Amino acid sequence: MKKLALVLGIILLINASASAEITLYEKENKIRVYTAGELTARYEDWNWFNPAGSSADNNYSYHFIRSRLAIGCETDKLDFFIQAQHTQMWDLPDNGMAPAPGGALGLGSIYYAHRQDENYHSTFIKQAYVRFKDILGTGLFIKAGRFEYVDALEVTYKNPKVMWLKKIRLSERLIGPFGWSAFTRSFDGAEIVLDKDNYNITSMASYPTQGGFENDAQKSIDDITLLTTTLTIKYDKVIPNTETRLFYYFYDDDRNMAKPDNTPAGSTLNNGEIEIQTLGFHLLNTFDAGPGTTDFLLWGAYQFGDWGDLTHKAWAFNIEAGYQFTKIFSKPWLRAGYFVSTGDSNPDDSDHETFFQMLPTTRKYALFPFYNLMNNEDLFLQLILKPHKKVLIRTDLHFLRLNQSKDRWYMGAGATKENGNIFGYITRPAVGDADLAKVLDLMVVFNLNKRVSFNTYYGHVWGDNVIENIYGTDDDADMFFFELNLKF
């Protein structure tokens, strides 16, 4: 906590003079050279489910500081950008792994499992790319190098409600930079964008980097190939107050390691590469109604391909709606939704039916990230309050079930290492039950200004039958964190 207090003091001291970007050189509005920085400091406290009869540490805290420094150059035709990142972690638990099926007792033990070190750090190139802009006035843009890719954010708007829904409830469901983790993820490759008044087409081909829980985030995972193409019909351009989007993703994983699934022990059916194609869509609509604004969104995906020697076929679907009272104090925004993704109903047949989340940022949809969107059913209620222009309060209540009790309980956010025995997803047996948990989330965000923000979170889990079967009677869990963010 002393380190975080020091960071807070530094932030408050430099706040008066900080700027979003610092221009180093500018000439006749034709060229601009600038620098920009970010700093994130977070303290996390975990009280994971306590496995009966185990001496593993389920109650611990750790913290990290992540800093980034970038330099960029903008012209009317060409952009250059390079960003370095340094992350330092402290106090990871060295005894946070319980015997199966208890496994990793929170994210601290997953960080530790990657490097077997309580205090470790890393410095690497986070982004380095060149971007050609509006080639010959056609609306064609090409980016090549190392960059971040965020699915569903190919198009952005000035409308704050639409952007909140896109950022928080649509983006990074399947592909994202894993920004909540200490080391994050990037993509090495190229992106081509055709941007017109009414629509946007974006295609990307890349290898993901290591990262997330792995400190060697400089290295590409060359055994994973990712191809994407999306078509976005822009908000309020063709359909009033509506954005629609179609997407196609191709994921090919040749890593030689055990796969997270429900195949019986000793089975060789899941040997070989993963090759999955995903077709999907989303629809987002908002409109004024009475004393406020209504929002509605749909998201769906269908997958087919190969999971080793098994035939992969799976799907997922999400529906959400909300209403915000914009003319009363705190502008209460009430929302509700239901998500379902398929699990595998028969571990002994030749099909793999568990929806595969690929390379997401899981915590956007699981604020207490003990689950993800694989073999999952999530009925949730949400209340968002804005009692002050600088303060946002969000409360979620989730009722979680597994879609198939013959499948497993999944946790994780995709590949973090190229080699070794860490695939990127953790599985635990359902033991014939489907009821997973109920979760209460409370998050408070205080934006001091455009450059400094504070974020605190508390979550509590009431474990149901699946968790009781694995951990015994001590089936509750808690998570707390406090985070400081600075941009300059």
Describe this structure in words.
The chain is mainly beta and 488 residues long. The protein has a single domain, classed as Porin (Beta Barrel). It has 4 helices and 24 strands. It has helices at 2-14, 107-115, 160-170, 465-471; strands spanning 22-27, 31-47, 59-75, 78-90, 97-98, 103-104, 121-132, 140-147, 187-195, 199-208, 224-233, 242-253, 274-289, 292-307, 310-325, 333-341, 351-352, 377-388, 391-401, 408-412, 425-429, 435-447, 452-463, 476-487. It has an 18-stranded antiparallel beta barrel. It has a two-stranded antiparallel ribbon with strand order 5-6. The radius of gyration is 22 Å and the shape is globular. The model is unreliable at 4-19 (pLDDT under 50).
Quaternary structure = single chain
Give the C-level CATH assignment.
Answer: Mainly Beta
Please identify, by name, the CATH architecture.
Beta Barrel
* Overall outline: globular
Strand content: over 45%
- Give the helix proportion (percent range): under 10%
Largest sheet, in brief, is: 18 strands, antiparallel, barrel
